[in-house]
Structure formats: C-alpha cells, structure tokens
Amino acid sequence: MAACCNRFVDVVFLVFVSLTCCQATYLSFSYGVLEAKNGTTEGSFCVIYYPNITSYPSEKAEATYEPIIDLSLWDGCSETPPNSEDISDKFVITSNGNCSIVTKAETIKRFKGKGLLIVTAQVMHLPDNISYPVSIPVALIGQGSKDILVGLGSSIQIFIYSPIDGSHMDYSLLVIWSLAVLTVGIGAYWSGLVRYDLQKQSHLISQGHPGEVSEETKAILQEEVSLSVTPVLVGVFVLCMCGMLLLLYFFFSYLVYVIIGLFVLASTTAVYQCLEPIVRRIPVGAVKLPRCNIGFVRVHVEARQLVLFIGAVALAACWVVYRKEKFSWILQDILGFAFSVNMIRQVRLPSLKICTLLLVLLFFYDIFFVFITPLFTKNGQSVMVEVATGGGSGVSGGTGGNSGGSSSGGDEQLPMVIRVPHLGYDPLSVCWQRYSLLGFGDILVPGMLVGFCHGFDLATANRRKLYYISTLIAYGLGLMVTFVGLYLMAVAQPALLYLVPFTLIPVFLLGLCRRELSLLWNGDGQVVENTRLTDSSKLESARPELDLDKESLPERASSKDRTALMD
User: Fold this and answer.
1) Contact of 145 with 46, CB cutoff 8 Å
2) Which of 36, 302, 306, 462 could disulfide-link to 457, CB 3.0 to 4.6 Å?
C-alpha cells in the first residue's frame, strides 16, 4: 500500500514538473500613446507595444509626426500591398492576419514603410524564447481606436511615444470618497431616526396609548420598523445577485436597457422622497389640488409636491437624454446619491446577525467575481469589471482612444455606479477607463450596517452615538485602504474585501466592551424589550428634536404608505 502511495506521489510530481517546465512564457508588453493631428483636429489613442521588439521615445519632444495609410483590410502577409498602394515613409495600418509580426514588418520594410500598426481585439501573446528581428516600429491598436483615428481625415499624421508611468495623483478618488462617505452618513442617520420613531410609536401603542395613532397607521408602524428577513432569505438574495450578474455578463446588450429603465424609476422616486420633507417646510404652494384617480390609485397632493415630482422626472429624463455626454456623470451622481440615501433609509435590517450574514456573503461574492472569475473567462477579465464597465474596452482593456470604452451593448454602461472623470494629468490615461467608479453596492451594503448602528444608538439613549460614528469612520478608512490597494496592485479591487472587516469589527468590539453584543445580535425586538426605550422618561432623551405628529408621519413612510394615508 505504501509503495502504491509513493508511486502515485511520484507520478503527480512528474506531471507537475512537466507542466511547469512546459508552460509558455511571453514577451512583456507596455502601453504607449499615439498622438494624431489633421490640421486643427487632434486626438490621443492608446497603443500596445513590446519593448523587446520596439522602443519609443519617452517624451513628446523626441517624437516626430509621420503620415499613415489605412490598409486594415490587408493582413500584411502577402508579398505586395493591395492595389500596389504606395506605403513609403508611412505608418501602415493592417489587420492581424495569420502570419507573424516579423513577416508583416519585413513586408512593410520591403516597400519602404515607416512603421506598422496592427488592428487587433486582444493582446498578441508572443513567446519569449525566439528572436524577433524587426527593424521598424510596431504597435497594436484596437478596432474602435482605429475607426476614430481614420475618421479624423485623409491627411493624418501620427507619432507614438511611451511616457514614463510615474506616480500621478488622481483626485477623482477624493471626490468619490467624499460622495460615498457623505451618502452613507446621511442615509444611515436618516435611517436611524426613522427606525427609532417607528419603534417609539410601536412601543406607545403596546403600552396602551393607541388613541394617538390611527389603526391604519399602527399597521404601517408595525410593518416598517425593519425588514422581516431570515438567514435563508439573505442566502437566496445573494444567490439571486450572482444569477443577475451572470445574466448581465452574457446578455449585457439586452439587459442594460432594463437596468437603465429601473434606475430611472428608482432614482426619480428617490429624488422625490429625499426632497419632500424639505419642500413640505416651504410655506409656498401648500394648496391642495383636486383629487384625481390614476388607475387604482387615488391622488390628492399639494401644488408644491406636484412641482417637486415634475422636477424629479425632469432630472431623470435629462440624464437619459444626455447620458453619453461628457457632463452626464454629474447628473448620474446626483441621481445615484439620492437613490443610495433613499435605499439606506428604507431598507432597515433587523439585527446585527442579519447584517453580519449579508456582509460576509457579499464579501465572498465580491472576491469571487473580481479575483476568481478571470481564471475562467476567455479574455482573462473579471465578470464584475466587465459588467461594470460595459463588457470590455478594446485591446487589453484600454485602446478605446478618447471614446472611453466599448461593449457588447454598444457604448452603454450600467448606471449603478458613482463615476467621476479622472482629475489630474496622466498621459497614459487614454489607456484606462475614463472614469473612476464605485458601485452602489459598496455604498448600500455598509450603509445598512451603519444605519442599524445609528438606530441602536438612539434606542439605547447613547448620546455620543458611538456605534454610528465608529462605523462611519471605519467605512471611510476602509474606502481609503481600497484606493491604496487599487493604486498598489493596479487592478480593480473588490471594495467589500476591505469594507466588510473595517465596518463589522468595530461594531463587535464596541458591543463586547459595552456588554451590548447580545442586544446588537438579536436586534429590534430585544432592544425594545430590554433597553431604555421602555423607560418613558427617556423616550425623548435618545434622539434629536424631530417632531413626529400626525401631519409629518406620512413624510417618513414610503410612497405606497403615503397613498394609503391620504384621504
């Protein structure tokens, strides 16, 4: 038996060694910048080159412009250019074809061509165990970039240089960090207030003071303190998220428009609900409009509410119309801010147990779809990044020129992200995505935990709001670490890899130190029964002044509940 085991180990070892020895290694490649001009028209495009084959100057001043000729229908493998085109002293654009780079370069050189641009969809992996006697400059360019380049005109001149990839501060990350922390802070603070108000009213009802609230309102209050969620439902939800992400990956060009439609509806509602409490404090336009029936819904609103609704619809409509313009990121971020704040306010998780389960499952979900899926995809890109950026963007994710990327869904991208254009000068920025992105999930998921913590602070009369402030600070620090990881590793990062431990650990440590971990873990029900919320003398001491009378109650309910409360 021992001999058989030893023989098996020897076989496995030999197979491993043979695979290791026979694994091919390839030439390293670098990114360069192609500058093009045609009179007053200019453009910058990303190219890829192999330093072992070709070298380019590192400064613009060292480069000289050369004319180009578009022969992209020719692969450069045949002996003569099509139609005997004169390619002397020109950069020649060819398709990939079935011959080697050396053969293409020799053909171009034979006809006195100046250089070679190969149009390809992906990086060409060249073995590093053979020589490449190439005497003219060679570079790869994506199809989208080539089309834009050729579209500049017939008398285009280009030069290629390879700027040194130094440390360039991208201030867009500072903007995204500020937006994310502000969104979580406001949404979680509001969520905690609503949770506490509903808990307090529910407690008053249970203590024999039902006359202060109508029967209809009692049902709403009992239902909305927090979501009725079980661990099984959390698991099913995460599985549904996995399925939806895979559907978007394989059917992006169809489902992207469904997501855009849902985003428009949700963000319109969010803008209205976020601004309505402010608008209702404005004394102008408080007159009630005549009742009207829309389907099965009876609407009876004030003039100022109607104006707000029209404004919310107009804002979302402007984004739909101008979503492909350069300034559209401002509109998208405004809608995304309102959407995220409203979601954190409305989706109130019942306990630390549910929060922990959700965050831990999404922790592994994020890691798998960012770091593991590249091992299975054809182009080596992660499923998460492909979906977030629109399904790919040319050669090695970067030769989209100034167009900002392409996808199987045209030039559409999912709107479920905060995006800010790169701020700061970096010549190689044409090789990356035009925007820094942060998905809504990296705001909403930690935001729900922070919102739960604020509600707990209020319920336990914690005036210093230790849980809320600690988790909010921890969220900001976790986001900073995410950006540091992005800078050091130069690849997309699963933000929840950092945010989940950064936000969960402080809650558990505080709970242990304050001997409140059991209350946190079990959530709303035990908090109401076992904390100072049951002490009527301290009901008002736990929260800032914010009247909850019959007139303002509908402001805290969802749109569905407001309709139910209207006469």
Assistant:
1) yes
2) 462
Query: Which tens digits make up the pLDDT trace of 259-275?
Result: 999 999 999 999 999 99
Compute the distance between CA of residue 328 and CA of residue 483 in angstroms, rounded to an integer: 24
As a whole number of angstroms, the distance between CA 216 and CA 294 comes to: 22
Name the residue with tokens 């005497």.
135
Among the listed residues 75, 366, 457, 524, the single catalytic one is: 366
pLDDT digits (tens, 9 = 90+) for 75-124: 888 777 887 788 888 899 998 878 888 888 888 888 888 899 999 877 77
For residues 455 and 196, the answer to whether their CB atoms sit within 8 Å is yes
User: Tokens for 462?
Assistant: 């914690």
Per the annotation, the verdict on 86 as an active-site residue is no
Q: Which of 442, 457, 524, 561 is catalytic?
A: 442
Long-range contacts from 107-111, C-beta under 8 angstroms, 24+ separation: 107/76, 107/77, 107/78, 107/79, 108/76, 108/136, 109/135, 109/136, 111/80, 111/81, 111/87
Cite the DSSP H helix spans in 100-230. Answer: 101-110, 143-150, 172-206, 215-224
Does residue 561 have an active-site annotation?
no
